[in-house]
C-alpha cells in the first residue's frame, strides 16, 4: 500500500489519532477550553502552554482543534 492509501484507510475506519490522543500533542481538551475562554493575549497563552503564538491563534480561530467546540 502507498502512504496515501494507508491514510484513506485510517480515516475510513476512524483509526486516525487526533487531539490529545496524538502522541505529539502538547495540549489537552481542558487546555483548549481554557485558551478559547480566556481574553488573555495570544503571546501570554503561548508562553503559558509552551506553544507558538500561531498555535494559539489557530485554536482561537478554529483552524485547529475544530472538533472540540466548547462554546
Topology:
Layout: H1 3-12, H2 29-37, H3 42-49, H4 53-60
Helix pairs in contact: 3-4
How would you describe what is shown here?
The radius of gyration is 14 Å and the shape is elongated. The chain is mostly helical and 71 residues long. α3 (42-49) packs across α4 (53-60). 49% of the residues lie in helices and 0% in strands. The chain has helices at residues 3-12, 29-37, 42-49, 53-60.
CA distance, first residue to last residue:
40 Å
**Amount of beta strand:** under 5%
What value does the Rg take, in angstroms?
14 Å
Contiguous helical run count: 4
Derived from helix and strand composition plus strand pairing, the structural class reads mainly alpha
Mean pLDDT: 82
Number of strands: 0
- Give the fraction of residues assigned to helices: 40-55%
Major sheet summary line: none
The H-and-E topology, N to C, reads as: HHHH
Shape: elongated
- Which residue ranges are poorly predicted, with pLDDT under 50 across at least 5 consecutive positions? none
Quick structural summary:
The chain is an all-alpha fold. It contains 4 helices and no strands. Helix 3 (42-49) crosses helix 4 (53-60).
